Amino acid sequence: MPYLDKIKRTKTFELLLETAINQGNAVLTQKIASKLLECPKSNTFLSLDYLYQLAGNTENIEFRFLIYGVISQYSREHGIPVFLARSLYQKYLIQRDSFKKLDESYIEGMELLHYISYLHVDERVMTYYKLGSHALFRRCHEECIHLCKKGINEDHKRDELTAKAYLAIIIAYIELRDYILAKVYLDAYEQLDCLNVQKESQYLRAILYAKTTDDIEKAVPLLLDCLHMRPQNEKLPVVNDLLDIYIRLGDELGVVDIFESESSFLPTNVGTPNQCTHLGLYFRAKGNFYIEKGDLDMGCASLLESAMYYKKMMKLEEAIKSIGYIFEYYTDKKENLPFSILQKMEILYTVHNT
């Protein structure tokens, strides 16, 4: 809009900006916010603070993210680290909740670490913890441990966030097969005076028992106890560990019992990437089991569902891996893939690419 170049008063820009937000005009909002910062009669720091406060009070997440983006771009170009750190922090908190932007938001979050000293201590701790759990989800286990330890070192509250950071460290060490340090941090975790510590520590003790002893069947009753202690939306990780043990023991009755009771443990509301990951893993195990038993309808349907959850998070390699088991079966049998399965694959592709 050409008339924007003729405006000289910051109050006019502010009035126009709030009007553009109320009208839902994203393009105009971005232009006016940028022009406000370029206004020669404005105080740059006051204008940046105004935009930062405005973004925080804007209910529409898209517009909030857009304004933080204007702040971060201007601050980066003009060397203003305080507002660059604050805007990157807010952008990361918004973007990390998007299933399709988990990798992009992690990269931007790691950029924030260069400016983290400009954040308030509570924001620094939150950044370390959020990035640490994000790294664990991406299977960057060493980064997870490093980030969570940094947060713990600055965290003097020792609250639920601290407990979650310890959990992430323990799980990362288990994944790295460093069971000694996993036990060390589990001991420290059990000293925290927080909710759910007993429940989670019992679960992790059972996992460590299964990982570090040859008598893994003794972990089953421990995991079953953990399963009964959890609400439905938190049961699936325990179920997947039980499945793994049953499969390793060749306990088909245990496996079938889990599959036949899935209505009691599948999440009723899938809202986190972690839930999607466990659902993808669960339906992959279910699909492989039933294919091996000759139940191709159940097996293929489960593997396609597994792929659906992985694709929802843009984990394309995992989605392809789940579908690959279907191709592998029909290739080994030297049979053509049924048209009905090809149709379902096409639907899966179409739905998640529109």
TrEMBL record:
Matching entries from InterPro entries are given as: TPR-like_helical_dom_sf (IPR011990)
| Protein name as catalogued | Uncharacterized protein
Which organism was this protein described from? Brevibacillus brevis (strain 47 / JCM 6285 / NBRC 100599)
